[in-house]
Amino acid sequence: MDIPLSAVRAMVEAALAEDIGWGDITTRALVPPEHLGRAQALVKGEGILCGIDVFGLAFTLWDPSLKIETLICDGSPIRRGDIAATVEGRAASILSAERVALNFLQRLSGIATMTRRFVQEVGDLPTRVLETRKTTPGLRLLEKYAVRIGGGSNHRYNLSDGVLIKDNHLAVIKAYGGDLREAIARARRGVPLTIKIEVEVESAEEARAAAVAGADLILLDNMPVDQMREAVQAIKAASPSPGSHPLVEASGGITLEKVRAIAETGVDYLSSGALTHSFRALDISLEMEV
What we know:
- The chain starts with a helix and ends with a strand.
- Helix 1 crosses helix 3 (about 50-60), helix 3 packs antiparallel against helix 4 and helix 4 (about 90-120) crosses helix 5.
- The chain has helices at about 5-20, 25-30, 50-60, 90-120, 140-150, 165-175, 180-190, 205-215, 225-235, 260-265, 275; strands at about 35-45, 45-50, 65-70, 75-80, 85-90, 130, 165, 195-200, 215-220, 245-250, 270, 285-290.
- About 45% of the residues lie in helices and about 20% in strands.
- The strands form three sheets. It has a six-stranded parallel beta sheet. The chain has a four-stranded antiparallel beta sheet with strand order 3-5-1-12, with helices on one face. A two-stranded antiparallel ribbon has the order 2-4.
- The model has no long low-confidence stretch (mean pLDDT about 95).
- The protein folds into two domains: about 5-120 and about 280-290, Quinolinate phosphoribosyl transferase, N-terminal domain (Aldehyde Oxidoreductase, domain 3), CATH 3.90.1170; about 160-270, Aldolase class I (TIM Barrel, Alpha-Beta Barrel), CATH 3.20.20.
- The chain has about 290 residues and is an alpha/beta fold.
């Protein structure tokens, strides 16, 4: 994985502590510690695998003596009947860490699978698919990783990653006599030169104003497709020369059914919170062989 191992370990350790608590009393009562077992991660659905290393880490953090064999790598298409990995060692340890390991694997595979479907819908267009910050608290790094595995790209990781002037920011500015131009100017003065300034707008007129005011990116928020197309044209018309207009992002209410039509309006990016909050976890189970 291309994210820090220390961060992943912290997330998995927190999940294990949450789930196992003061001990797995069921397994402790039923399974003697010397009993050995082998388990298979059995795929029962169809999609894109993601999180197989996290799956293994959940077991080895709980019991370092467990042996993990990865049979399918992240980013691979999977279908019903595939075996993604095997786990061997103390049966009690496998049973105790099972749920946490599967939770990560199922959720991340679900995100990657949904992202891949979005990306395939716009595959022949230059528009890039992004997620948002609408992620599960504490799991953002992994969920954004899953979006990349699915073929998407990442938006801001956190509030320190970039400037995004939203409607509520503008409401505060306007309440004290300011306007959009002043908001962009304040942002320019307040952040490093390498940081891009993005502005959220809700109409073609606001989009044009943001382009004239010098925004680097313009986010079209919850616009109908026709209005979105009009906004893209307004942004281009407001630019001093062809090809120099701000990049355009569409967001709000983007579904798999609408993603193609939205991309065809000419936007550069489309961001969907659904990728990380409305996905369906992929069906994968752990089958014990004692």
